[in-house]
Amino acid sequence: MHSVKLVPCELTTEPIVTGSSVLGVQCADGVVLACDTLASYGSLARFQRVTRFHQPAAGVVIAGGGEYSDLQQLFRITDNVYRQEFCHEDGWELTPRALHQYLSRLLYARRSRLDPLYNTVAVAGKGRFLGMVDMYGTAIETNLVATGIGTLLALPLLRKRWHEGLTMDDGLACLEDCLRVLYYRDCRALRTIQVAKVSDSGETFISEPYDLGNLQWKVAHAVTEKLMI
């Protein structure tokens, strides 16, 4: 008889292929999310046309940074949740706030089992809902969202420019400016970005990837000349 070798279950111990910051802003007429399309293999800019947005149902969009395979698993889980809700046929639907709380409990449960999903996720939905959940299950509902290094570099800029009457077009321009700063400063960022808009009524739009324009490198040249002196 052949002996059967039992292979122990191996869990993810560290992120390998990762996405960087996700930014979001709550506007007077909806919510806007934005992030780049890069998935880095360590320090290598390996996959440059990946999407980190997902629309599991009408009127709700999620986006995440961190380990990309874990993010794909989160997308599959949310699809399954909405599929189960649809099969009940009771007229109820999962709201963006309910999904936000579900992801909080899910990520907390995975962390407690020492099998975390290495992601920080932003949730945008109809009714101008905007929230964020980190890999430990910590959930916040806020009018400005930034994950990763964007918390340090982009969030102060968002706070400076945000106001109650901000429209989605103005919010998008603000997020693009912040992504330019991240492209300048974050070595895991890319100039190719994607944006998602969810209106107050639930109309959803996810753009095709496009390149940031109006990039300025004059400051970099000035720094280089100063270092050479």
UniProtKB/TrEMBL annotation:
Keyword terms: Cytoplasm, Nucleus, Proteasome
Q: Which Gene3D superfamilies match?
A: Glutamine Phosphoribosylpyrophosphate, subunit 1, domain 1 (3.60.20.10)
Q: Which Pfam families match?
A: Proteasome (PF00227)
Q: Kindly list the residue ranges recorded as spanning the membrane.
A: none
Query: What is the annotated localization of this protein?
Result: Cytoplasm; Nucleus
Supply the InterPro entries for this chain: Ntn_hydrolases_N, Proteasome_beta4, Proteasome_bsu_CS, Proteasome_sua/b, Proteasome_suB-type
Offer one example of a GO biological process linked to this entry: proteolysis involved in protein catabolic process
A cellular component term from Gene Ontology for this protein is:
proteasome core complex, beta-subunit complex
Role this protein plays? Non-catalytic component of the proteasome.
Name the family the entry cites. Answer: Belongs to the peptidase T1B family.
Protein's name in the database: Proteasome subunit beta
Instruction: State the gene name recorded for this protein.
Output: PSMB4
